[in-house]
Amino acid sequence: MDVMDRPPVTEETIGAAAGRLDGRARRTPLLTSPFLDEIAGRRVLVKAECLQHTGSFKFRGGYSALSALPEAARVRGVIAYSSGNHAQGVALAARMHGVPAVIVMPSDAPALKIANTRALGAEVITYDRAGESREEIGEALAGERGLTLIRPYDEPQVIAGQGTAGLEIAAQVAEAGVGQADVLVPCGGGGLTSGIALALEARATGLRARPVEPEGFDDTTRSLAEGRIVTNDRTSGSICDAIVTPAPGRITFPIMARLCGPGLVVSEDDCLRAMAVAFLRLKIVVEPGGAVALAAALFHPDAVQGDAVVAVASGGNVDPALFREALERHG
Amino acid sequence: MDVMDRPPVTEETIGAAAGRLDGRARRTPLLTSPFLDEIAGRRVLVKAECLQHTGSFKFRGGYSALSALPEAARVRGVIAYSSGNHAQGVALAARMHGVPAVIVMPSDAPALKIANTRALGAEVITYDRAGESREEIGEALAGERGLTLIRPYDEPQVIAGQGTAGLEIAAQVAEAGVGQADVLVPCGGGGLTSGIALALEARATGLRARPVEPEGFDDTTRSLAEGRIVTNDRTSGSICDAIVTPAPGRITFPIMARLCGPGLVVSEDDCLRAMAVAFLRLKIVVEPGGAVALAAALFHPDAVQGDAVVAVASGGNVDPALFREALERHG
After folding, report:
1. Is the pLDDT of residue B3 over 80?
2. What is the DSSP letter of B250?
3. Does domain B3-56+155-330 have CATH number 3.40.50.1100?
4. What distance in Å separates residue B316's CA from the closest CA in chain A?
5. I need a labelling partner for B330 at 20 to 30 A (CA). Which of A89, A222, A234, A302 fits?
């Protein structure tokens, strides 16, 4: 079935995902520091999804999709293509359901990421980026074994799972006494951004989701400005690898176009600075792609409106050497 | 009044502190990772107090003590001696109450710590470690201005504040389905350890608090073994500076002697390894002194009993250069 023929994601879909994730996903804290407020010139509230299981929000979508499958399909297992956070999220979700997961990863993926995904119980199948197609390998395996493909963002139950972070933000921001704010979200294919936007539409009308991207990989920002999907020239070569995709998704883009404010773009050095600030002031570990929203909140205050801003720190799976560099430059 | 004449800390005192801290202190998460369980050979649950306001549990005690003062005393302000976490905890608590705080710090304290304490609104008064007595300076100031001294651990309302972390542990560990476990606590003067021990006595009889200290600064471990207060030979020269004290407190020691299991001792390199594991697997920043309990849980499994262990990560205020070293050695 084409992805566009899937039922749309609604408040009910997200609420149902939240019910399935209750007690499974972590309700991550909304962190604050007077030092961040001073840098930004307004209140800054940081949704620390780097503290989610497997170190990123991707566990929400993976668990949501797996738990939404019909029992007969689920027990046969799932398959995903990913060299990063989606792989680990799906692998742990499958392990928690006691079903097999196959993750198709490029053979040149970092050894640690392959090892981690295996350690979470998944079968890792590597392919040669240059000569092989991961889609062909995946389809062949899915057919042979009856596996269900879990797409990283153009999948309604994945979007619904990511949207549960938005439900939490709506509640936590209200508890903090904030009624109006931009909610800045690191954006790759748009699963997290569109899921949060839908949750805020339903539960917090004073909050507006806005995607944030690194310079040179601002496909969603440009797509929103042009009102149609446009693509990146490059899809590699960024330290923000976790959020680099060719273009916003076919399901996620119309949601973002309807609900989101304009995109924001930050430099790689902004990301490293934001990582150092998060280290010093919040005591959390954020990866470069997960730090774009915090970077925008802190270092591009003129691009944001209102007395408060929410930044999602979407993941923390960063190589120690790169983290050391961030501290060396900006710590 | 001598500290020993103060009313004892009870379940009621801790419960009252929890009421005053509700909505002020952060209910820090209890974090887990299958990778930690694998290292330790049992379930590991990490109470992430590094995510507390000001980056350590000390905010709890500072806020508890300030909020327990009679209004007339509180408005005159408070004073504390500290070059570290207690200073920042008291400073922020005073700011939240809108009252003055004076912090007496050695003039050779790291510039960043002095700047942070000032940025939190406190008046910092420096003294020369070699030639001046901080007690004399403090007493003179307290007398002149009518300030109330907030001791770092031998103060019942501070112990009660730290004990609120124990109430949270009792609830969170039960939610995680764990009934029996050692609760390992980084121990300096014993305020956090004794507060948690009292909370567990009241709310989680299957949990037992145990102090953890760095090699060479194991005054509490030896005091518990000997049944009387003994002192450290040195009180400086450890990367675990946040938990180095001359001896356990006169109020805290009898509580620990009655309620705690034997102390544990770890090396400085164990701490750096635990910091790297916390970075990689939990995405939190832990300082060396805050990492001693996690180090014991991970690397001294034979010294712990049961199928699960709780480790308190008590603070995250670590110098970036030292954190880089931990990642370089063990990341």
Report:
1. no
2. T
3. yes
4. 6
5. A89
